[in-house]
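Q&A log
Question type: sequence-to-structure
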Amino acid sequence: MPAVPYDIALEQGATFTVSFEWREDDGSDPPAGPLIDTTNYTPHMQIRTKPGGAVIATFGPGSGLGIAGGVITLRIGADIAETITRAGVYDLELHNTTDPTDVIRLVKGRVSLDPEVTVP
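Response status: OK
Response body:
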């Protein structure tokens, strides 16, 4: 299954939250099948300047990414968003904890940045 494209519009210094559902492909677009059991998966994500470029930010379990019952939630707190100073690209991967060769690239896209004006 190819990664689903989803661009993130990040406001520097503001909290950003989005949830992704991993569902079985039932032939509809987007898939509306049952949520996939994510018990043996951990989410990982990086924002980079470009594919293979410098890392801008990294997220994982307990560090901006949560996973439960087929739903993966990304939360970039205002404190982290404040440190992001440029746009980039990202992908969100799910790594199987029992089989390190099983990696699902679930979502990918660009990260645009709207610079903060008011700084406390």
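Response note: The two ends are 44 Å apart (CA to CA).
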